[in-house]
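subagent[fold] <- orchestrator: predict structure for attached chain, return tokens only, no commentary.
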Amino acid sequence: MKRLVLLSLVLLGLSVPAAVAEPAWGGNCLSCHGLLPANVIQVFGENTIADPDESATGAPDRGPLRVFRTYRGMVKSLTAQVQALVPDDTYAVQVRRLRFPGVVSGGQLQYGADCDWPEWGEPPNYYTNPAVSFRWPVGPTSFQYELEVGPDAALDYYDLVLAVAGKFNDDTALFYGEEHFYLQVISSLTGDLNCDGDVGFGDINAFVLRLSNPAQYAAVYPHCPDVNGDINIDGSVNFGDINPFVALLSGG
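subagent[fold] -> orchestrator:
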């Protein structure tokens, strides 16, 4: 799988003008591209599925979506998979910018580098000349993205979109498909000692390191909230958290 880091997303607790959240070359893909079923592109590696309450912000109610949980100051990885095209179709993949603030509490955001298309020239070519993109099935079908969260990011769900656009080889028609998903910025998650957004057996070594060498743990997981290790909620992380941690992993 070819690794492509195409987007650095920085979520900050700042008010950002609407123009900043719009792609410079326009955001209405469907003005040129026909719509494809959602399963043409899928995102993998999520932590959970959730349907947050958008009623306070007026954000679209998209129903249950995949959720990628992360913390302030950390980087979250996800993988996009393109499928169901036919030989010689051309295509390109992008994580699109948000058009509105966080869906639950209206958390604000700011983007860093939107995307990098060195093989194809300037970003407008992605929309205006899809023939310069990848060609199925020679081109990559998996794309890996890293979403960088700023240290002051508002705690919220953020609606992101994975999009694929291109041109069919047989009739040269332009096509477009997308999948919405949430990036959830959280403050803590009890038992998540490695801060991957989940609680599971992958946290065991990190928990042992936190108990045996707190300084080294802090160096290895610099943005991981220490409260994640306070399993018995007594205000500190110590040997008293061992049995509750075992119970947590076993579903107790």
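orchestrator: received. Logging for downstream: The chain has two domains: 9-186, 201-249. Helices lie at 124-128, 204-212, 214-220, 242-249.
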